[in-house]
Amino acid sequence: MLSKALSAFSRKKMSTVDTAWLRMDSDGNLMMIVGVSMLSKPVSPDELKHALQSRFMVYSRFRSRVVSDVSGSWWQEQEVDLDDHVIHTALADPAKNKSNKPALQHLVGKLSQQRLDPDKPLWQMHLVDNCVGEDGKLRQALIIRIHHCIADGVALVGVFMSMFDTRPDAPDHQPTARAAAAAEESPWEQIMLPVTAASLKAIDLSSTMFMKSLGVLGELDKIPAQLTNLADTAGQLAIDAVKLTTMEEDSPTRLKGKPNGKKHVSWSEPLPLSEVKAIGKAFGCSINDVLMASVAGALRSYLRVKGDAVAHDCDVRVMVPVNLRKASRQQKLGNAFGLVPLVLPVGLEDPVARLYEVRHRMNELKGSYTALVAMSVLGVLGATPKQVQTEIQNYFARKATAVMSNVPGPQTPLFIAGSQLDQCMFWVPQSGDIGIGVSILSYNGGVQFGIVTDDALVQDPDNIIKRFAPEFEKLVMMALMGDWE
Question: Which residues partner with 112 through β-bridges?
Answer without folding.
Answer: none
